[in-house]
Design brief:
CATH architecture: 3-Layer(aba) Sandwich
Number of helices: 8
CATH class: Alpha Beta
Helix content: 25-40%
Radius of gyration: 16 Å
Structural class: alpha/beta
CATH topology: Uracil-DNA Glycosylase, subunit E
Order of helices and strands: HHEEHHEHEHEEHH
Strand content: 5-15%
Distance between the termini: 48 Å
CATH superfamily: Uracil-DNA glycosylase-like domain
Shape: globular
Length: 239
């Protein structure tokens, strides 16, 4: 099986602490089911990517070490991040998200094809609740709990973060678990545009840019633009 090189090099590597965390994430083998699945996908490959090397490892976060906006997804896509080695890269969800982020001034280009395509995030960082591609895109609660410490450490290093944009209910639940202190009661429910003020950062809900949501119109460009504009306002990006 051909694979991309092991070092997880990204914009975050400008901070040596984030670079060390990237490499630790990429070497993780905590969850046997996820290890088996991500490596099988990388070995078998999708026909359209048959001649490409696959990453086939956990996928580190990526972005600006001085970010005030943190975007939290569910997990890498089997033939997206699990192939490219960079979160939200190389699939249709990535195309939708990066185009919206580019329009919002949070990314320097509207597409994300591979790890070395020149993409740079501006005052923004992207991570995932679970760092391995899961079967059927459904991690177990135990897999989530085993992986969340990586996001917690990422957020601790990203000291300027003021808002966490949660792409979907799974990410919303993960963000509530990541916030210090007890979760408010009643438990805040996920919804598009749902907002839970900080400290240490505000949690902001957004429908996931999956094809199931974008093809059906459940998530429109305007809806995502409104969430990103709200995130910028909360974090005072550009003010």
């Amino acid at each position: 099986m051909s694979r991309l090189p092991a070092p997880a090099i990204g914009a975050a590597s400008r901070d040596p602490r984030l670079a060390a965390l990237e490499n630790e994430v990429a070497a993780c083998r905590r969850c046997p089911r996820l290890v088996a699945w991500r490596e099988e996908v990388a070995r078998v490959k999708r026909a359209s990517f048959a001649h490409e090397p696959y990453w086939g490892r956990p996928v580190p976060g990526f972005g600006d070490p001085a970010a005030r906006v943190y975007v939290l997804g569910l997990a890498p896509a089997a033939h997206g991040g699990n192939r490219t080695g960079r979160v939200f890269t190389g699939d249709r969800s990535a195309d939708w998200l990066l185009a919206a982020m580019h329009r919002a001034g949070l990314a320097n280009q509207p597409t994300s094809r591979h790890r070395d395509d020149g993409l740079a995030l501006i005052d923004c960082f992207i991570g995932a609740a679970v760092r391995c591609a899961p079967p059927a895109n459904r991690p177990t609660p135990a897999e989530r709990d085993a992986c969340l410490p990586f996001a917690a450490r990422e957020l601790a290093l990203l000291e300027r973060v003021r808002v966490v944009v949660c792409l979907g209910a799974f990410a919303w639940d993960a963000a509530l678990r990541l916030r210090p202190g007890a979760v408010p009661r009643p438990r805040p429910r996920f919804g598009h545009g749902a907002e839970l003020p900080g400290p240490p950062w505000t949690v902001l809900g957004c429908f996931h840019p999956s094809q199931q949501n974008t093809f059906t119109g459940r998530l429109t460009e305007g809806m995502m633009e409104a969430v990103l504009a709200r995130a910028r306002a909360i974090a005072q990006v550009g003010f």
